[in-house]
Design brief:
alpha+beta, 13-stranded mixed β-sheet, four-stranded antiparallel β-sheet, 12% helix, globular
């Protein structure tokens, strides 16, 4: 299972940095779905200066490396969403409710065309919220709509069919994030992950409901799916739908598009309502979990400080993705020819049905040779993963430090639709991520973490995805980054025999805060002022938000 710049004289220095950010994240890149990567048409604009050459008034924000930002607006008293998969509620077309940008390849590649997804396979989403739910409406292009997996947390996972996936870290700690998958047939699957999967981190085995122990480590994984331990789910299996207060999801597509190849693509849509909170502390029938759920060692086993209904300036970290498998088609016009789609499909496949048996390892290897971004050639990794926020040098979605930022906002009484306020701790989270990456590589190479920044910078400079220039800049810019420190504590502080803990302290417009990261990937930010005080915005312009891409319906 896969849980496996040239010259522009029209902008001031501040605008240049923000314009670079806009170009990277706006979704207005033009693509045509040519057969080979080299045939894709890419509209680009080049701007004077690398990040290292930007004005110091802006450079400390590291906007060139900032994750995408999306502002989700609360439903007004006159708005509602009926979860039927159709996206026809007026709430989805209200002012300020924008589509996410075009998806990119899961991994940030040095060869730019590898990052790009053809128009015919794009997906986009909108997000709203109210007192009880986070709503996601999604629209996916797909040449062949079909499904075999059924039910919720059933015998198989929706990923086995082509699916849509959501990853949500409500606390920003990387701990107790939620994974959700769904197929065009509305098969669903959800998991509560105590620590990022696949990193070999320290965590506690899942405890039974009768175990009242409070270990220092988070529970590794909790789900009612038989693939892992536990019994957690956001679904109220006794009373499905919004009336039961739990997870609600629905899909929609044209019946004539089902189980037949459509050139260049068909469209299926989905709506999901994720409950914020669980409805109690027991796992009896009728119980459901929520996005704010946590576990040991967190008080009340919940992230109460991340509740957007009771806390101002709430930010979550989120990624939306889709898994797409190569399918074996046989064209009979004019003679039988076997093709593997969906990339590079020929129009003469219209009306045909593929062989739904998984490709062999040899076939996957042949597909990967032509389309190198296929994740692997074994049965579990023979698929593509595309997301709104790439996960850097990784090829695995379970990397919360790379996900997009989700800002919760309420519509302004003045009618203003642009309420974007960039998360203040973005730069400290970014530097923490660089330190974590470099420390991991240093330990892999030497057998130990380091408390030496010169050693760490040397490792960072040789590591894919680690920017030693940015890390050096943070070390040298004391008026913004007041403290950068590395510590190698004894066992007990991170649950491991060998540990490191990094501290990144910043000051912005008189606001002091500290972000820490440790060898167990735990990230925490603490503030020197009350949580009710309005904190500065890293950026405020709509251009720095995830803005609409091309209209999929045109």
């Amino acid at each position: 299972y896969h849980t496996s710049r040239r010259h522009c004289g029209c902008l001031r220095p501040v605008e240049v940095e923000e314009f670079v950010f806009l170009i990277r994240h706006s979704g207005h890149t033009m693509l045509s779905s040519g057969r080979m990567f080299g045939q894709w048409i890419l509209a680009t604009i080049s701007i004077t200066g690398t990040a290292a050459e930007q004005n110091d008034d802006v450079r400390w924000k590291f906007l060139h490396a900032a994750p995408p930002h999306y502002t989700t607006l609360k439903l007004t008293k006159n708005e509602s969403i009926v979860v039927d998969g159709r996206l026809d509620d007026l709430a989805w077309s209200a002012p300020g409710v924008e589509w996410t940008t075009a998806m990119v390849d899961i991994t940030r590649h040095n060869y730019t065309p590898f990052n790009l997804i053809p128009d015919s396979l794009q997906a986009r989403a909108k997000l709203r919220w109210d007192a009880n739910f986070l709503y996601i409406g999604v629209e996916l292009r797909e040449p062949f709509i079909t499904f075999n997996v059924t039910g919720h947390n059933g015998a198989d996972v929706p990923y086995k069919d082509n699916d849509f996936e959501t990853f949500i870290d409500v606390s920003g700690t990387t701990q107790y994030y939620k994974e959700f998958e769904m197929s065009a047939g509305n098969a669903t699957y959800d998991v509560l992950w105590g620590v990022p999967d696949g990193e070999g981190l320290a965590c506690a085995p899942n405890a039974s409901d009768d175990d009242t122990s409070d270990p220092a480590l988070p529970i590794c994984v909790n789900t009612s799916s038989h693939f892992y331990d536990g019994n957690w789910t956001m679904a109220n299996v006794a009373t499905w739908g919004l009336g039961g207060g739990g997870l609600t999801a629905a899909t929609s597509y044209s019946p004539q598009d089902f189980n037949t190849f459509v050139s260049p693509y068909a469209v299926w849509t989905a709506e999901i309502a994720f409950p914020f909170r669980s409805n109690g502390g027991t796992r009896q029938r009728g119980w459901h979990g929520g996005l704010l759920d946590a576990g040991p060692p967190y008080a009340n086993h919940a992230f109460e400080n991340a509740d957007p209904t009771t806390n101002t300036q709430t930010y979550w970290h989120i990624d939306l993705s889709r898994a797409e498998h190569p399918r074996r088609y046989t064209s009979t016009n004019p003679t039988p020819v076997v093709e593997f789609c969906p990339l590079g499909c020929s129009s003469n496949l219209s009306g045909t049905v593929p062989d739904m048996n998984p490709p062999t390892s040899a076939e996957c290897a042949a597909v990967k040779a032509e389309w190198p971004t296929l994740l692997g050639t074994d049965p579990w990794s023979c698929y593509w993963e595309w997301a709104i926020a790439d996960v850097g040098p990784n090829a695995y979605m379970h990397r919360p430090l790379y996900w997009a930022t989700l800002q919760f906002a309420e519509p302004d009484q003045s009618g203003a639709s642009d309420l974007t306020c960039g998360q203040m701790e973005g730069p400290s989270r970014y530097i923490s991520r660089l330190i974590l990456l470099a420390e991991r590589v240093h330990k892999a190479q030497t057998g130990a973490y380091t408390a030496s920044f010169p050693q760490l910078l040397d490792t960072c400079a040789k590591t894919d995805g680690c920017d030693a220039d940015d890390l050096t800049y943070a070390l040298d810019t004391k008026d913004r980054f007041t403290t950068l420190a590395l510590d190698l504590p004894q066992k007990g502080s991170c649950g491991l025999t060998g540990c490191f803990r990094a501290t990144v302290a910043m000051t912005i417009d008189g606001f002091d805060f500290v972000t820490t990261v440790d060898s167990n990937s735990k990230v925490e930010t603490t503030y020197g002022e009350s949580s009710t005080v309005q904190r500065p915005c890293l950026f405020t312009t709509q251009q720095n938000s995830l803005t609409p891409g091309t209209d999929l319906k045109e």
